[in-house]
Amino acid sequence: MNEAKMKPWSLFVGAATALILLAGCSTSKNKADTQYVARDVSTLYNSGKSRLDRGQYKLAAALFDEVERQHPYSPWARRAQLMSAFSYYMNSDYNEATSAAQRFLSIHPGNRDAPYAYYLIALCYYEQIADVTRDQKITQQALDSLGELIRRYPDTRYAADARLKIDLVNDHLAGKEMEVGRFLQRRGQWLAATLRFRIVIDKYQTTTHTPEALERLVESYLSLGIPEEAKKAAAVLGANYPGTKWYERSYKLIQQHGSKA
Prior knowledge:
This protein is mainly α. Helix content is 75%, strand content 0%.
């Protein structure tokens, strides 16, 4: 199994162990495991768990769905919903995984496993984050979902992991603003570029893109003919990132502009 993707499983598996033990040792002998045949709940559940352990994620999800379909009022159905969501997630069927987790939350909003369901939804969006050159709608959905998890369950282990991922998502969104800003600079649209770099500084100031954004502001302000604003940006850059190449570049630009004045 993919180690990165198995992390949510390791966070969740402890809670699932008790139910797995209660299931006993029965397993399905049918070749067509998902064929509709009335089976006892433990057989269905254990068949799904067996397939999951063997990396047959799509089949595992179908078996867990069958638990819910054949035994909708069983305590096992509640657990199977989450196991189905996780199986879909492992198979990269993110829409199915999100739907299964959301269905769980709509039916069992106060369940003790609700934090995990929110976490899984956030992971589904997180795994789909696209390159900075593409539309960032999914990236924003990941950020919103991670934030909702932290707001609802701030003291859980899921929230701790979500905080780390939010830093990465913010860095990604800042990278998108920088990509657009550099593009606008190349076209000589200095004012529009300035607005993009200001977004990075004001909204994503803790990301790795801030030093470059400040230097790009110096370039843009000088090109717009407002050197005083360029000097302010350079001063902030020098105070916070004095040893970077971006400060060296901005310093040279200010010096060159002063010699031309």
